[in-house]
Each structure stands twice: as C-alpha cells, then as structure tokens.
Amino acid sequence: MGKGHTTAGNAMILLGNLPDLWYDYNNLLDNVQNDKQNRYKKERKKAMVKHIILWKLRENIPSEEKIMVKKNIKENLESLSGKVPGLMEITVQTDPLPSSNADVMLDCTLEHREALAGYQIHPEHVRVADTYVRPYTEVRMCMDYETE
C-alpha cells in the first residue's frame, strides 16, 4: 500500500506541474528551432569575395612605354570604383619589388560571388580591360576566394 501511495503521490506532483512542464517543453522546442534558423542564416550569409590578378607585361614593350602602360592600367581600373555594383574596393599595384615576377597586381573586394560575376561582364570593366590591359599583357594569373 505504501508503494502505491508513493506512485500516486508522484503522479499528482507531476500532474500538478504539467503546465510548467508544458511551458518548459515549448520553450525548449522554440530554442531549438531558433538555433536551426540562426545556423541556416549564417550558412546562407553571402561571403565577400577577393579578386586578385597578376599580370606580366609584354616583353616587346620598351621600358619607357611600360611606365605609361602601368599608369593607364592603374588609373582606368581604379576608376571603376563606384561604377560597378558590388565592387567595394579596388587597388592596382604597379611598383613591384625587384623580387617580384609580375608587373601589375589588381586587388578587388566584392560584396559576394554574384557581384564578381557582374563585375566580369560589366561594360565599363570590359572596355577598360580591352583598351588598357589585354593589348599590353602576355601572362595573367587570377585567384578569387571568399572571405568574411
């Protein structure tokens, strides 16, 4: 009899706490759902993209002309700032150290991969590349990567 009474007493305690248990259970479910949604949002967050290009100028360009070619490449590529959607930052280096084997470096930061795709086909970028870069370069190396 003592044992049954204890079980019945425990059941009464549990039933008495049922609203509290139900509340705790629902809060736990809400927290799990919120955690899943936050993780999903983090995973879906679009990472910024770095677009790095190294060029070697054509060997047959005279040294004096290379100075002007580098100046034109730098000025015209950097002029794309504010013209291409998603292009956050653009820098062109044209004065490498003697230990370098590239003549010009482009360093861009774009908002996300879609912005990189748009940059590559943007009419102003294509015009600058076709006019000031491609005719004077013989080697091009590119590295694109995502960053936070």
Report the radius of gyration as a whole number of Å. Answer: 31 Å
As a percent range, the share of strand residues is: 15-25%
Which structural category do the helix and sheet elements fall into?
alpha+beta
Average pLDDT: 87
Q: Give the proportion of residues in helices.
A: 40-55%
Q: Summarize the biggest pleated sheet.
A: 4 strands, antiparallel
Strands ordered across the widest β-sheet: 2-3-1-4
Concise overview:
By secondary structure, the protein is α+β, with helices and mostly antiparallel strands. Helix content is 53%, strand content 24%. The longest helix has 27 residues, at 18-44.
Description:
With 148 residues, the protein is of the alpha+beta class. Helix content is 53%, strand content 24%. It has a four-stranded antiparallel beta sheet with strand order 2-3-1-4. The model has no long low-confidence stretch (mean pLDDT 87).
Keywords:
four-stranded antiparallel β-sheet, rod-shaped, 148 residues, 24% strand, alpha+beta, single chain
Strand and helix map with partners:
Layout: H1 2-16, H2 18-44, E1 48-57, H3 63-78, E2 87-93, E3 104-110, H4 113-121, H5 123-133, E4 137-147
Antiparallel strand pairs: 1-3, 1-4, 2-3
Helix pairs in contact: 3-5
